[in-house]
């Protein structure tokens, strides 16, 4: 039982670190010239950040074992934040394309 | 509203004047209530003066040149004079607020030294945060013929005093927060203790206002002013409401505060 | 009459309340008070993030040349360090729950060590940037960079106090409140998820 729980935490940590490296890889090194506005990369890395935050809240903070209300509130906050950020970014792109 | 149980001891008349008279004579908490209402009165007056009369909240532009600043003083001449006239008369009321919070700390299981430090720090902070601002802006408004550069200097100093001298508040908030978190008498809920951290952080968030003359970090910027002010307003409303709860719950003892109205705890048969 | 009506009102109400919570075994880890604080902090930080995004969107691609001066290495290393610290802290809560207080205490100390490393790297990164002449007022991107990272580091510094409280609980047998340890962990993980978002916004987004 306890080892299963520890194993789960370790897997969570490996996944989170892996996602971090992936988002680094997405945002890094493919540019030879100066950085340019890039919606796919931005959408990708911000969504991955929201996903990582959700995993931290659900697993490390043990929200998955908390009453449903808490999970709903945290998920709603993350979703709203992500949508607002991406929405603002998209509007900005619209002006500058 | 919460007096129904004590009314069992001495009949309480109906009607507002009757009720006030009754509380005056029979309510053992009348003194605390006077202080609480004095505090509420002060905050309301503070809001009216700074927002409506003197237009210092939200603050005017930090990037104006001296002639524009002189014009601002002229535009708000009477507002500044009447508003700060009121402030000079009632500044002493900050003592009510400090005293009541000091009392709440004194009622905790912590050393009264916390209450003394809180009162000392917040009494000190009223000087730069409120009085210096009021004095500098009044001087500016009273001497319109003075060199615009000097008027500009007064304006800059006044608003930086108001916005920038947050360090004293910071330690005061820290003292209150520690007292709440280690208190065993349950005087304030723990979430309010944690909320103090948010208020404490706002004191850092205004710091860039010293550097920037425009943008979101300037003294009227979205982050350094508006978000900070919203957090501070939430904090203020929370502590005024909670102080009211403390007075209602207070049983004048030394142990943990009862959860409900203290009078139910004193007279359980009522 | 009143007690009766109260009883009549309460009975179905409380049963409903129980069923809507949904369940056996579900509970909020640590004090709900700390969760309220975490959500309030999350909202304050969200407002900073949104203001940042608005300024960034208004500036078109003006933020990008400034962003090029950030060292991705620092950002990634700090993210990995904080994730590691959170892993230790989550492990500590689990160990304490199982009564393995020695291990739990060691995990809290490892969490603090990661936190120190994080702050150390942050100071190194800042001095690096300042050495390159990139300061708070160099351009708007760097204003946000210093502001967001500094406010976050303040939370980390406060986190050391929180970890000390957890360590104090774990050290002496008469205390050892699981609730307080979980409350401290909740605070520490907040630092982690806020950093994850700051990392994406400052270092990797385009």
Can you put this structure into words, describing what you see?
- Chain A is an all-alpha fold.
- Chain A has one domain.
- Chain A contains 3 helices and no strands.
- Chain A has helices at residues 2-27, 39-60, 68-96.
- In chain A, α1 runs antiparallel to α2 (39-60) and α2 packs antiparallel against α3 (68-96).
- The termini of chain A are far apart.
- Chain B is mostly helical.
- Chain B has one domain.
- Chain B is 69% helix and 0% strand.
- Chain B has helices spanning 16-26, 30-53, 66-75, 77-90, 94-106, 112-142, 148-164, 167-182, 190-205, 222-249, 262-266.
- Chain B is globular, with a radius of gyration of 22 Å.
- The model of chain B is unreliable at 1-8 (pLDDT under 50).
- Chain C has helices at residues 2-21, 32-58, 63-67, 72-97, 101-131, 140-171, 178-204.
- In chain C, α4 (72-97) packs antiparallel against α7 and α6 (140-171) packs antiparallel against α7.
- Mean pLDDT of chain C is 88; it is low at 1-22.
- The longest helix of chain C is centred in the C-terminal third of the chain and has 32 residues, at 140-171.
- Classes of the chains: A mainly alpha (97), B mainly alpha (270), C mainly alpha (206).
- Chains A and C meet through α1, α2 and α3 of A and α2, α3, α4 and α7 of C.
Question: Could you provide a short overview of the structure?
Answer:
The complex is a heterotrimer of chains A (97), B (270) and C (206). Chain A is an all-alpha fold.
